[in-house]
Automatic annotation (TrEMBL):
This is Phosphopantothenate--cysteine ligase. One of its GO terms (biological process) is coenzyme A biosynthetic process. Keywords: Ligase. Signal peptide: none annotated. InterPro entries: CoaB-like_sf (IPR035929), DNA/pantothenate-metab_flavo_C (IPR007085). PANTHER family: CORNICHON-RELATED. Its EC number is 6.3.2.51. Belongs to the PPC synthetase family. GO terms for molecular function: phosphopantothenate--cysteine ligase activity.
């Protein structure tokens, strides 16, 4: 009997750039395997569900990629190589500091109209220098690989390829699955080819459940890796119960559980043995401290113990 996830891949063609991305993944993971480095795959941002093959309309889900992009920077600080798999136009590590008008406000133009020179305003120079140095260091050491997706199908194809590339690293790999993946989709063979006309009134669309990809990921694709998933809820009373249900069902290592309204200030780390809170005070939050720094520090410690316990056994 064909599993739900196998059926999904059979019915949805791979993205056109998959072979190119697979080559980049193989080169990146090979380099860090040979260098004895630890590698984290971070998924970030949301996925779209197209309503048409020639897509004009789509169903989206909430995620700006904040947690993933911040976490990537902190993993780099801890010496990890990072595969950053992100939704197009969501936040990216380092460049997240310079978005929109904020970036333009940092710049100033000289008075020379014939040969104008653009410089960074003195009050922003230290910030720009600090971020740029970290970015250049990551790129010079080939510690950061960024790969993008938009649709659910592109995400699932790229995720499987990334897992296959990471498998040789064994327990030195972390999967940090922070992307907000759609729970429902429209099968490719049921989508309209062209833009759905509005003249006929509202369409009736039948959504199907997305196969739970954690199952093959944990049991087949990267069985030795340290796998971390995320659980976001709006009802705090359901949070721990649903996180434990996921752990019991998929047998991965950790769930990072958070409530929508407080996700930037508090998370709960849920394992098979225990659960505990990581949080920032209001003062820390107002001073610009980021909960992702605490999350990554905690995971790095756990991953180190995970590697040692596997070596002993």
């Amino acid at each position: 009997m064909v599993s739900a996830w196998e059926d999904f891949y059979a019915k949805h063609p791979p993205p056109q750039d998959l072979a190119q991305n697979e080559n980049a993944l193989k080169e990146f993971t090979k380099k860090h395997l040979e260098g004895g480095n630890k590698v984290v795959l971070i998924t970030s941002g949301g996925t779209t569900i197209p309503l048409e093959h020639n897509t004009v309309r789509f169903v989206d889900n909430f995620s700006a990629g904040t947690r993933g992009s911040l976490s990537a920077e902190y993993f780099l600080q801890h010496g990890y190589a990072v595969i950053f798999m992100y939704r197009v136009k969501s936040l990216e590590p380092f460049s997240r500091h310079f978005l929109g008008q904020t970036f333009l406000d940092m710049l100033q133009i000289s008075e020379d109209n014939e040969n104008p020179v653009i410089t960074v305003s003195p009050k922003y120079t230290q910030k720009v220098v600090a971020v740029l140095r970290k970015y250049k260091e990551a790129m010079d050491k080939e510690k950061l690989l960024q790969l993008s997706f938009t649709t659910l199908s592109e995400y699932l194809w790229l995720l499987r390829s990334a897992c296959q590339a990471l498998a040789p690293l064994g327990n030195r790999a972390i999967l940090y699955l922070a992307a907000a993946v759609s729970d429902f989709y429209i099968p490719s063979n049921e989508m309209s080819v062209h833009k759905i006309p509005s003249a006929c009134g509202p369409p009736t669309i039948q959504l199907q459940l997305v196969p739970k990809i954690l199952a093959p990921l944990v049991s087949l694709w990267v069985p030795q890796a340290f796998v971390v998933s995320f659980k976001l809820e709006t009802d705090e009373t359901l949070l721990i119960t649903k996180a434990r249900k996921a752990l019991n069902k998929y047998h991965h290592n950790l769930v990072i559980a958070n409530v929508l309204q407080t996700r930037k200030q508090q998370v709960v780390i849920v394992s098979n043995e225990t659960n505990y809170v990581l949080s920032l005070t209001n003062e820390q939050l107002n001073n610009g401290e980021e909960i992702e720094q605490l999350i990554v520090k905690d995971l790095v410690e756990k991953h180190t113990k995970f590697i040692r316990s596997n070596e002993v056994s």
